[in-house]
Amino acid sequence: MKDFKQHFYSMFEKFKKSENFAFTRFSDGELRILQNVGLELAPGHNVINGIKTKGRYAPENLKSFVPERDQFYKDKLFESYRFKKKNYYAGLCCRCCVGDKQHQQMLDWYEGDVTSEFLTWSNLLLNSNYPLFMENFLPEFKKKKIVLICNKNCNIEKLPFKVVQDFRVGPYCMRNDYDLIETVKTWIKDNDINDHVFLFSAASLSNFMIHQLFDFNDKNTYIDIGSTLNNILGIDNKRGYLRGGRTTKKTCVW
């Protein structure tokens, strides 16, 4: 049985030793897309599978998936989830967060050895591992050449580490900023970028980019940090673990 904290420390030790890897997260939003369920997070409401409810979403959180329009992106998401390469980690939704049925569905989709060390939690840096992430990874970021892919509303000046290059995305970035993948590939190639650490906070676009960039050049490290740095970047911080809520005590199970 996989262990939440053991997986975290295993990845962290790899990072400390400067062994390049990729970690991409398929959380509940990606699960809905893979299930071909329509969704929309709009400024004043959300829609999931045709059911509309009220909600307030910051500009950096706006996203949508329309099955009749966006099959290309669903297919690309499956490609990134099923991609197999040494040191490419795919994080899926755990049964304690989405239930046994949906967790098993993601295992069935993986089309590979589900006991593989490279299949892990989408929440690996969150919940009870979030304080460990902040305590362990942030000091190490200071020692690395960091490239940040994040929302245009982020303020990187207060980050406790230097960013050598940043690439920005806007709302609905999965669709609107898909061409950023080729832009970053060109930058890597033209500048001979190796042994850099790419940090991604760009919704489902992160999945596409991490997959395709690691396939293109595996001599860098690519990490989906999700919203872990939102408090510092000055953007939406409503998630419980960012406010020291009960989820910081939650240890996810396989």
Structure description:
By secondary structure, the chain is an alpha/beta fold. It has one domain. Helices cover 35% and strands 19% of the residues. It contains ten helices and eleven strands. The protein has helices at residues 4-16, 28-34, 71-82, 95-98, 100-110, 130-141, 173-176, 180-190, 205-216, 230-233; strands at 22-25, 39-41, 45-48, 51-54, 63-65, 88-92, 119-121, 146-151, 163-169, 197-200, 221-224. The strands form two sheets. It has a seven-stranded parallel β-sheet, with helices on both faces. A hairpin with a 3-residue loop joins β2 (39-41) and β3 (45-48). α1 (4-16) packs parallel to α6 and α8 packs parallel to α9 (205-216). The longest helix is centred in the N-terminal third of the chain and has 13 residues, at 4-16. The model has no long low-confidence stretch (mean pLDDT 95).
How many domains make up the 3D coordinates? 1
Helix content: 25-40%
Order of helices and strands: HEHEEEEHEHHEHEEHHEHEH
Query: What value does the average pLDDT take?
Result: 95
Q: Hey, roughly how much beta strand do the residues contain?
A: 15-25%
Q: Using the CA coordinates, give the radius of gyration.
A: 17 Å
Q: Assign an overall shape.
A: globular
What ranges have pLDDT less than 50 throughout 5 or more consecutive residues? none
Would you tell me the structural class of the helices and strands?
Answer: alpha/beta
* Helical run tally: 10
Q: Classify the oligomer.
A: single chain
Instruction: Identify the strand order in the major beta sheet.
Output: 7-6-1-11-10-8-9
Number of strands: 11
Give a short account of the largest sheet: 7 strands, parallel
End-to-end gap:
7 Å
